[in-house]
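Recall the central idea of this unit: under ordinary conditions, the amino acid sequence of a chain determines the structure it adopts. In this exercise we apply that idea directly, starting from the sequence alone.
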Amino acid sequence: MASSYLILDEFLCFLDKGSGRERQSRSILDVGVYAALEEIEFDKDVFVKRGGMYAWGKEVDEEGCGSAEVKELEW
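Accordingly, the structure predicted from this sequence is:
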């Protein structure tokens, strides 16, 4: 399960904590995502099985917000 997460540090390097010793890829800004992914251990099948694929979009209501108005939060 540890190799089913993609963790980026502040330099946009992937961190690999899955096989004992922590490893760090080169920055995706320097080498691109695919080359950086080759430098770490990442198990895409386990990622998908654990539900790692998210639906990043959300429905927008008529007022342009992603959620309905909450009366308790009104000033």
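Helices lie at 28-31, 33-38, 44-49.
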